[in-house]
Amino acid sequence: MKFKNIESNPILDRLPKHLRQFIKPQNYEDYTAIDQAVWRYAMRKNVDYLSQVAHSTYMDGLQQTGINVDAIPNMYGMNRILKAIGWAAVAVDGFIPPNAFMEFQAYNVLVIASDIRQLEHIEYTPAPDIIHEGAGHAPIIANPEYAEYLRRFGEIGCKAISSAKDYELYEAVRHLSIIKEAPNTPQDAIDLAEKKVEDLQNNMGEPSEMALIRNLHWWTVEYGLIGTVENPKIYGAGLLSSIGESAWCMTDKVKKLPYTIASTFQNFDITKPQPQLYVTPDFAHLSLVLESFANTMALRTGGPSAINKLIQSQALGTIELSTGLQISGVFTNMIEHNGKVSYIQTTGQTALANRDKELVGHSVLEHADGFGSPVGKLKGINLAIEDMSPRDLRAYDIYEGETVTLEFEGDIIVTGDIITGTRNLQGKIILISFKNCTVTYKDTVLFEPSWGQYDMAVGKEVISGYSGPADLHSFDLITHKISSTTIQEEKSPEKLELIELYKQVREYREGTNQTVSRTKVLEQLVNRFPMDWLLPVELFELAKKGNENELCDSILAHLETIKQNRPEVGHLIDDGIKIASQEIAV
């Protein structure tokens, strides 16, 4: 398929439909000259500073991934260049659900929030934006070891089971990030949104797999340091893209700790600078910690805890039995016996699969109202059904046309007429279908003949449980409803006038309009927009390059006035002047 404004490539072509619902056009023409100036300032400042403190991959990666310091990256160009290192990029609207975000990574696709922060938030924004995504994430994936870690993280992370509260927190954080970045949001609205996030964070209960792996993501992909605790370098995208926090994190005020699995339990506050950071000795160590965490997930542990996690999630998930049979649905009940699963139950649409492919005749149409089945061995028989040879099955009357009573160890009794069995590629029986079937647990009837055909899963244990369906085609996954969208600024006539001044200076610098009078632009700034600081810095850079000393002095005098009236931007002005005054290899 073709994506608007994006040159398609084999990586994007592989994306499943349920991920494509999150992709939006970049609409490059919507970026204003002020947006371009914000990108340019942030990148020039970053490159100047990060050339000293970032991992060596960063500078090379800027070139390899097509990130231009002077202009916001165009998705079309980025995809053309990323293709060479086996990756792609797509634009989205702010935060997307964590499972979807990680699944994109599993497909080697960078998710880039294409909006850009306001000038007022140039140092840091809680909302994902193109400075964070494009300048932070993209350059580091030029390192093959790190790129593989990112892909593997996505592959494991998208299987992590969330809790019902996780999604509520995601929506609250998304809302907060949108209104904090939106122009003219009343402070009381921000305070209310921040309180909601704080209240949710303080009442999450036992952290879910998604909450824990999100911590790992934060302390590595977003805020990771590499090297030694005494002399670390930056590789985390949140630090690489924050011109304030990248300097702050290198001071003694931020505690540096060796990166271990313990960081899984260290929560973070997206609205504040981080008080501690973790240092990995190398990128390979990241994968070791990730695998250690994966070993604790239901994906690998299975058993009753996997079912419990899925029940608590109240969302679509999958279990896999020892035969390879996969059951996908919303799990609502489980019966345990001696610490093992003896019966599982889903409610609503359910599908059965093997090797991630739906079994013919076992779609959500056949199992529209749910699916229940015993799990485990038969009482008094050491040999599990799945391990029985055809002769064994015959001996126990588990055979086509026979009426049989199967009594399982967990007091589940299945009585009915066997219709047929379904086997996997290895020849193991994975499903037995009955007619005239009754299933009971002690005095409780779990299935009765009037309900139709009964399909009994075969498996002595649950070996895996994870988020989402086994076969992506089994369910309608095009259901995501974005509760709130990024708020676009309604530009006043005054703002449009200021944008026009920025545009004139940009065109002059690029050589497309040499008739622009920079002295006149300065006069208009002083008269009409006396507190705007970024455009005077850009004018100073041009005057400095042209050895126009008189104009330089006028601009510096104006900037001093701004610093007196707006001391909070004084360091930004000083840094801009410093960068403009030196030759920087960018």
UniProtKB/TrEMBL annotation:
Instruction: Show the coiled coil region(s).
Output: none
Query: Ligase: is it a keyword of this entry?
Result: no
Q: Which UniProt keywords apply?
A: Iron, Metal-binding, Monooxygenase, Oxidoreductase
Which cofactor names does the annotation list?
A: Fe(2+)
Instruction: List, for all copies, the residue spans of the domain called Biopterin-dependent aromatic amino acid hydroxylase family profile.
Output: 1-345
The organism's superkingdom is given as Bacteria
UniProt cross-references to PROSITE patterns, sorted A to Z: BH4_AAA_HYDROXYL_2
Checking InterPro entries in the record gives: ArAA_hydroxylase, ArAA_hydroxylase_sf, Aro-AA_hydroxylase_C_sf, Aromatic-AA_hydroxylase_C
| Entry similarity comment | Belongs to the biopterin-dependent aromatic amino acid hydroxylase family.
What is the protein name for this chain?
Answer: Aromatic amino acid hydroxylase
